[in-house]
């Protein structure tokens, strides 16, 4: 319990600093409430959206899209990353393609996603898939390549004579810390990507909530969406860090 509280203290200090800066800007520059409402107005809007159930609906819509795309990305990226890390010819064939596509921002894929999939769920999942795929792939490749050859030799000496048993008992456990790190990073990039996708074409989700607030000149609604995105992002990262400590070793 004490350890948990010690981890939460920096976040509490950061929140207090943000609110203090927020109030300072309001007191000094006195912006119109439609541009920068005081924290109390935002808190009231947050409670109204929560009480009506609209906020939970938007959170659920965004989470559903991100989780679906993240799982699909992991199912493709991890096996492909292991193959590229273990089989040189596979890496030589695919690495140029990966390095060509990887720098392209997920936001740049939004117009194509709309053209290919329309404004339904598939397009949004595709954009998140792009954002989540490459961090998992790169981390998996790096984890497999960093395996100490001595571990491979030791596994073979101790009875892992076929590739299947060597993979299950040596390669996968040794690469697991990097794979989990990649999954953690990919969820964060996917979370950022879905917000951008929902800003363009959606009727639900936190991105839509922000876009709708902008259209009707409700800065308090925009800020509610931004705050929820930030808080949920921190919660997800803390969860992945907890899982990382429990089931892996040597991870950051």
Features:
83% helix; single chain; 252 residues; elongated; mainly alpha; MetI-like fold
Descriptive overview:
This protein is an all-alpha fold. The chain has one domain: Orthogonal Bundle (MetI-like fold), CATH 1.10.3720. Helix content is 83%, strand content 0%. The protein is built from 10 helices and no strands. Helix 3 (54-86) runs parallel beside helix 6 (121-145), helix 6 (121-145) runs antiparallel to helix 8 (163-200) and helix 8 (163-200) runs parallel beside helix 9 (206-215). The longest helix is centred in the C-terminal third of the chain and has 38 residues, at 163-200. It is elongated.
Element-by-element helix/strand order:
HHHHHHHHHH
Structural class: mainly alpha
CATH topology: MetI-like fold
Q: Given the structure, what is the number of helices?
A: 10
CATH hierarchy: architecture: Orthogonal Bundle
Topology:
Layout: H1 2-29, H2 39-52, H3 54-86, H4 88-101, H5 110-117, H6 121-145, H7 149-157, H8 163-200, H9 206-215, H10 219-247
Please outline what is shown here.
83% of the residues lie in helices and 0% in strands. By secondary structure, the chain is mostly helical.
């Amino acid at each position: 319990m004490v350890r948990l509280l010690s981890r939460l203290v920096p976040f509490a200090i950061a929140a207090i600093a943000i609110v203090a800066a927020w109030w300072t800007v309001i007191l000094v520059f006195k912006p119109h409430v439609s541009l920068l409402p005081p924290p109390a107005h935002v808190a009231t809007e947050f409670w109204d959206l929560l009480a009506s159930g609209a906020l939970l609906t938007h959170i659920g819509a965004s989470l559903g899209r991100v989780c679906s795309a993240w799982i699909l990305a992991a199912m493709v990226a991890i096996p492909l990353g292991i193959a590229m890390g273990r089989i040189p010819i596979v890496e030589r064939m695919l690495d140029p393609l990966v390095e060509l596509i990887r720098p392209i921002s997920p936001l740049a894929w939004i117009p194509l996603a709309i053209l290919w999939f329309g404004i339904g769920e598939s397009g949004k999942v595709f954009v998140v898939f792009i954002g989540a795929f490459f961090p998992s792939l790169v981390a998996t490749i790096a984890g497999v390549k960093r395996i100490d050859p001595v571990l491979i030799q030791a596994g073979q000496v101790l009875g892992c004579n076929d590739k299947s048993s060597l993979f299950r008992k040596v390669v996968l456990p040794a690469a697991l810390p990097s794979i989990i790190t990649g999954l953690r990073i990919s969820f964060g990039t996917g979370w950022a990507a879905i917000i951008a996708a929902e800003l363009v074409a959606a009727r639900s989700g936190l991105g839509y909530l922000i876009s709708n607030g902008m259209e009707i000149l409700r800065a308090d609604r925009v800020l509610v969406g931004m705050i929820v995105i930030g808080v949920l992002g921190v919660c997800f990262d803390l969860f992945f860090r907890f899982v990382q400590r429990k089931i892996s070793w040597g991870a950051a």
